[in-house]
Each structure stands twice: as C-alpha cells, then as structure tokens.
Write a structure and sequence with these properties.
Length: 729
C-alpha cells in the first residue's frame, strides 16, 4: 500500500492557514443553502405581515404624577407621622418608587379605580355581552381589563412617574389614565387618613391601659416604702446609715475586745500572786491604787519603831506589846487592801466583758438589718423598674396620640399632578417593527438551518477528510461536467467528455490524477488497477473512462475491463457491442481477438462484460481469470478494472487481490464518511494496495474545492509520462 503523503507535501487547507475562521467557507455554505435561507426569510416576512394585519389596533394614553420622597413637614421635623408618606432616607428612594410602580400596576389598584368611578357600568369597557352579569362579575371583568393595560415607569434621578394605559378605544384609554391618576393621588391621602384614624383609636385605648398600669405601679411602690419604713428616707440613705453605724460599732467592738484581753491578763497575773507575801504581791501595781502605798508606808514606819523598841524593851513590856499590835494592824490593813484591789480587777474584767458583748450584739443586729434590706432592695429596684416602664409607656402613648391627632388634620400628601393624559395614540400593531424583527429572526433561522444542514451533512468534501478516513492520499478531484442525459437516459456525452474536451478543466484534473498514479507506481509498477467505489452511482465507471482516456492520450496502450458483470455499462459509454467479452473468455467461448474491442479513443481498448453470468464472484476466483489477467498484462501497458462497489458485493475485494493497486472513487457531497471508512476497512482486510482516492463530481467554483483543484491540477508538471518516466510504459 502506498504511504500517505507527508504533511509537507499535501495541499494545505486554506481554512487552516487562515485560522479557525474562514469566511470563504461560510460564504460557500450560504451559497449552497441559499434557497433554504431565502425560503425561510420569505416565510418569516409573510407570516409577520399576516400576523400584524390580524392584530387589533391598540391606543395608548399617558399621564404623569410627581412623587416626592417625603410629604411636606407641616409641623416640623419633631412630629413623627403615624403613617409615613414616602421614604425616610435617600437610600430607600429607589425601593419606594419600585413599590409604587407595582401598586399602580396591581389588580387591586385597578379595582379601586373601577369602584371609585363606577367604570364597571362603562359600555366601552364592559361589553354588551357582559352587561347582564352581576355587579360583582362586572367589577372583576372591568378590573382585569384595566390592570392588563396599565404600565407605570419611573426615570432614574427624577420624581416623575408616568402612567400609561392601553386600550382598543383611544378615548377610553385617555379616560382610564386620568381616572387612575386621580385614584392614585386620592387613595394615597386616604391611606394616611385611614391609618391615622385607626392609630388614634388604638392609641386612645392604649392610653387608658397605660395610665392604669402606671397608677398600679405607683401604689405598689408607695405601699412597699411604707411597709419598709422608707417614706422619710430613701433605701440608699438607710443602707448608708446602717453601713456607717456598722463601721462605728465594729471599731468599738474591736477596742472593747482589746481592752477585755488586757484586763484579763492583769487579773490573771494578780490571781497568781495571791498566795505570796502581801508586801511582794503585784496586785497594787496592777491596780494603780495610791491607798496601798500609804498603808505600806505606815506599815514600814510602825515596823521600824517596833524594831527599835525590841532592842531596848522585852516582849512583855506594854510598850513592846502596843507597838507590835500597831505593826500587826498595819499589815492586816495591807491584806485587806490587797483583797479590795483584787475585787476591783474582777469588776473591771466583768465590765470589759459586758461592754464587748454589748458591742458584738449591736454589730450583729446591724448586720442582720443590712441583710434584711438586701431582698427589700431587690424588690424596691423591681418596683422602680416597673414604675419607670409604666411611665415611659404612658409618655410614649400620650406623645404618639398627640402626633396622630395633629397628623390627622394634615391634608397635604407627597403625590401631585404633573400632566393629565391627552388623546391616545396608536402603538400597536407596528408593521415596520414587526417586519424588521421578523426579517432578522427569519434570517437568523435560515442561517441556522443552513449551517445545521451543513453540520448534519456527513458526506466527504475535503482532502483532509479523505486522507484521515482512508489513510490513503487524495489523488485528485474531478469536477462536475455540465452535460445532461438524453431522452433515452444515456450519459455517453458525459463519459466521453474528457476525450471531446481535452482542454477543459475536467481534462486537466484527470491528467493530474494520471500523473499522481504513474509517479506513485515508480517503486511498484502499477500495471493493473482496480477502480471501485464504496456504493453504487458514485461515478466509478465514468472515472475509469476518464482515467483510461488520459492514460491512452499519453501514448500507452490501455485496456478497460468491465468486471461489473451485474450492471455493466462500459460498452454503452464507449459505443461497442457487448456480445463477446470477459464472461466469454472465462468459459472459453471466445478468443482475446474477438472479445477485446477498439474504441473511438486512440490507444484505448475495451474488454466488455459479455453475457451476464449468474455467478460473477465465482468466475473471478477461478484460475482462468488469473490466466486471463496474465495474458492481458502481456498485451497492454495499463489495465483498468471497472469493479462493482466494495460494499455491494465481494467482487471488488477479489479484484483488489489480483491487481497491483486499487483506486477508490468517492462522490463529493454524496458519499458519506461512514461508507468511505467501511470501504477502506474492507480493502485493508484483504491487504489491498489502495493507491489513493478520487473525489468525483465536485463543484470547483467553490472556493475550497477550487483551491485543491489548483494544487492538484496546475501544481503538477503534467508532461508525457513516457518522457518523464519511461520505465512505466
């Protein structure tokens, strides 16, 4: 099998060279399907005209109002409106305007206008057929008709809102537009008036409830203060007083405790010295008593006198006895004074204990009183909060009630007249616009259909497709020949076109194909070639005649063999009898001289089919047919077998094995890619040498096919093969 041409040797795709977008290709698609596009365009325009003529005439009337973001502040900014007309800030203006547009276009608003002006009795709005209906039904019918024709719009950075009404009656459209404007202005004020009145009733009832709640809270707080003894002093003041006393008595208790400890220590020391000599007892020093010092001085004086008398007088002397008695009396007096001092310490200790206990009891009492005030403080705070909340609620209700009453007297709104609706003008149907839209849509639809058909077209149309599907090179393209069939259905003029028009573009293309085949067979001499196609009626017979004609014109002896023994046609195309032919040779009823016929084309001979046998495939598999091919190789330079289609019967596969190569013919724009792929696969299964593919019957006026024509036809040095490749003859 001949290898596909390298990428550098193949004709370049102009679409690929120009990038993904090839305008010539798209223009070619448009030219190809121009009648589909024109038909779609004509149908679209006609449908638009007919549809427009059938549409009713619609009139539109428009008026406008000015919607201010806020209503006039008659009472200043301190008065809070119960029902706000407008917005409170610049940032919410757009939302407010959009809401108003939705209200104007709503069914409920249309119903309000219908009821306000009794439009349900207007014969122009409610038809004669509906006038016998109930009032409720007529209101619903009129409301639907009005709301369906209303459109409201608002320009950005403007306070003007336009209200448009469409209707079949121009006068009715104007009437409805003005009625809607009046209804919108009045209903806006009624919303505030109605809302303010309802708010006043609610606030009046709420004021009585708030006042009762406030009185109950005040009474409850008074009773609590009375029970807690807080009428003359506040709870915080009483807590502060208790805290001061508690601090004072806590300090006093601490001092009393220190004093009791000190007295106790002195008393304990005094008690421990009671068993010693009274003169050495520290009790007098601890009590700080001056009487004891006087008694001690008297005792020591008397005792000194006694010691002096004892030196001069004896124990029995009355003076001795008297002085001794004075000493004993003085000592006894000291002992009595010591006991008295001890009793004094006991009294002082008892007094210190009693004082400490009194201070402790007072501190405990104050602490208990402070603890008892804790829950009272919580309860007092709760009652204060209740009273404060009741006061705030009462003040709020009273203030809002005052604002509501003042707002109810304000009759100024935020919506004003801008322009009344004038006479309605026709807005539909718009013939020019509809035709323009229909033209654009139908043209787009026509183009979409054209490109859709092109996309769905699975036929082979380019060299890249052929080479990619078959793996074999494209040998060339044969353009469509502008000749028709005669009344008898013969196509002889078309089959002999190359011979009769040797200077035509078709002839040039065929010579280019001949050159490609001859040069591709330098290494492997292609003496015998099978010409076949994937399916019937793809131009293989005509292509074989064209190829044989160009080869014969180069001086070679060329034989056309009609091996399509089911539907033979070569004898008709070349004008020779079919009586003796290939089938006669196969069964031995004729000689080569009788079977091979000469034609009007020099050097071109024909071996017709002969009588059609019942089993062509079996005849081609015989040794006789192989021997016939061998004999023909000796007699002719080139042998071209016109084979049946590859997919129809197995004859092509048999001939492909017996010949030197296979030329596959595909009908451009007709042969599908799948058929070509199956044919190439079937030939590959029998190891056939596929020389290449010929694209037949193409329109070379097409930019893309014309480009390949110049590459394959005029790009070759088409000289006589006998001069450039004499070894092939």
């Amino acid at each position: 099998m001949i290898e596909p041409q390298p990428a550098a040797d193949r004709p370049a795709d102009p679409a690929a060279e120009g990038g993904d977008f090839d305008i010539g290709r798209y223009l070619g698609i448009i030219r190809k399907h121009k009648w589909v596009i024109l038909a779609t365009f004509a149908v679209g325009i006609t449908a638009a005209v007919l549809w427009t003529l059938r549409q009713p005439v619609i009139y539109e009337a428009s008026g406008s109002v000015i919607i201010n973001p806020r209503a006039p502040q008659v009472y200043g900014n301190k008065l809070q409106e119960v029902v706000q007309l407008g917005t409170g800030s610049y940032w919410s203006n757009q939302e407010y305007y959009n809401t108003q547009l939705d209200i104007i276009e709503s069914y409920d608003f249309a119903k309000e206008a219908v009821l306000r002006y009794k439009l349900y009795d207007n014969p122009a709005l409610v038809g004669v057929a509906d006038r016998d209906r109930s009032e409720k039904e007529r209101i619903a019918i009129a409301s639907r008709k009005v709301s369906s024709g209303v459109n409201a719009s608002h320009k950005e950075d403007s306070r003007v809102v336009t209200i448009k009404v469409r209707n079949r009656d121009a006068k009715l459209a104007t009437l409805l537009a003005n009625d809607l404007i009046e209804t919108y202005i009045e209903s806006n004020l009624e919303v505030r008036s109605r809302g303010t009145g309802e708010a006043t009733k609610i606030l009046s009832s709420e004021r009585s409830s708030a006042e009762t709640e406030l009185r109950e809270a005040e009474n409850e707080l008074y009773q609590f203060k009375k029970d807690a003894g807080l009428l003359s002093v506040s709870l915080d003041a009483k807590l502060s007083l208790i805290a001061g006393k508690l601090e004072h008595y806590s300090t006093a208790l601490s001092d009393a405790r220190i004093k009791r400890i000190e007295v106790g220590a002195v008393r304990a020391q005094a008690k421990s010295s009671m068993g010693t000599d009274v003169l050495e007892s520290p009790v007098f020093a601890l009590t700080e008593d001056t009487t004891a010092e006087t008694l001690k001085s008297q005792y020591f004086d008397e005792r000194q006198k006694f010691l002096e008398l004892s030196e001069t007088l004896g124990p029995k002397h009355p003076a001795y006895q008297a002085q001794k008695k004075k000493v004993d009396d003085a000592y006894a007096a000291l002992q009595r004074e010591a006991k008295l001092a001890m009793h004094e310490l006991d009294d002082r200790y008892a007094a210190a204990q009693a004082q400490e206990q009194q201070f402790r009891a007072e501190v405990d009492r104050l602490k208990q009183e402070a603890l008892e005030l804790g829950p009272k403080r919580i309860a007092f705070a709760r009652l204060l909060r209740l009273k404060k909340g009741a006061e705030d609620r009462y003040d709020l209700v009273v203030g809002r009630l005052r604002d509501s009453k003042l707002a109810g007297r304000n009759k100024l709104g935020n919506i004003h007249h801008h322009q009344d609706a004038l006479a309605g003008h026709q807005v539909a149907p718009r013939m020019k616009v509809n035709i323009a839209v229909a033209a654009m849509l139908s043209l787009c639809l026509g183009l979409a259909l054209a490109f859709g058909l092109e996309y769905l077209d699975r036929t082979v149309k380019s060299a890249e497709e052929v080479e990619g599907i078959t793996g074999a090179p494209l040998l060339g393209m044969i353009p469509a020949v502008a000749t028709g069939e005669d009344p008898a259905g013969n196509v002889k003029d078309r089959d002999l076109y190359i011979f009769q028009h040797p200077t035509s573009q078709a002839a040039e293309c065929c010579r280019s194909i001949r050159t490609n085949i001859l040069f591709s067979g330098v290494a492997n001499k292609l003496r015998a070639l099978t010409v076949t196609s994937p399916s019937p009626r793809e131009g293989k017979t005509t292509s074989a005649i064209y190829l044989g004609t160009t080869m014969a014109q180069s001086g070679q002896r060329v034989l056309l063999v009609d091996t399509d023994m089911r539907r033979p046609r070569l004898h008709k195309a070349l004008g020779v009898p079919r009586g003796h032919g290939l089938s006669s040779l196969l069964i031995g009823e004729s000689s080569f001289e009788d079977a091979i016929k000469t034609t009007d084309i020099p050097n071109l001979f024909l071996l017709p089919c002969g009588p059609m046998p019942p089993n062509p495939a079996e005849l081609l598999l015989t040794d006789t047919f192989s021997n016939i091919i061998g004999e023909l190789r000796e007699r002719f330079d080139r042998i071209l077998f016109d084979s049946p289609p590859v997919q129809a019967v197995s004859d092509a596969a048999v001939l492909a094995r017996l010949s030197d190569g296979v030329v596959l013919v595909a009908h451009g724009g007709k042969t599908s890619r799948d058929e070509l792929a199956r044919a190439a696969h079937r030939l590959a299964e029998v190891n056939a040498n596929t020389v290449g593919v010929i694209l037949n019957n193409l329109d070379i006026t097409n930019r893309k096919y014309g480009y390949y024509y110049y590459q394959y036809a005029y790009g070759q040095n088409d000289t006589n093969p006998t001069e450039t490749a004499s070894g092939l003859t």
